Amino acid sequence: MSKKKAEGEEKEQAVAENVEEEKKDIAKVREEIIEEGGEEKAERRERRKEIEAVVNIYTSFNNTVVHVTDMSGRTLAKVSGGMVTKHNRLKANPTIAMFIAKRISEQIKEYAITSLFVKIRAQTGNPAPGPGAHAIIKSLSREGFKILNIMDTTRVPRGGPKKKGGRRGRRV
Description:
Elements: H1 2-36, H2 39-48, E1 52-59, E2 64-70, E3 75-80, H3 81-84, H4 94-109, E4 115-122, H5 132-142, E5 146-152
Parallel strand pairs: 1-4, 4-5
Antiparallel strand pairs: 1-2, 2-3
């Protein structure tokens, strides 16, 4: 258990170091450009640097879980409905999903992330995601993140195990 915790802390520290290095690089480039020509060019260069992340949203009719990773798959933030509200019946609510998105955006902004790839997953076999998915995407775009792609990764059963009821089905 402690070994996993130590590995997690090392990964987190590596991500933080990468962010710090990128901030230093941006500051150096900005200073060089200001010396050369002007602040407007520096601001344009700074805006071009977009850091991307993947937002995995799992929504069922009982809960909503949002998990943010960088492009290599390392976890940056993870928030679920139970972390935001104490009421079980509200965990899949769109209002609670907005609060989840707010918490996620606060955690992501520390890493200077500007662009997001969104993967939505519903419960296996369900035709549509739960009520929180749309609210989360809307809230993240309002927070100022650029949403590059929205992808549905819901698993689809193909045949599967035999259904109950016997050969002639359930007789009413």
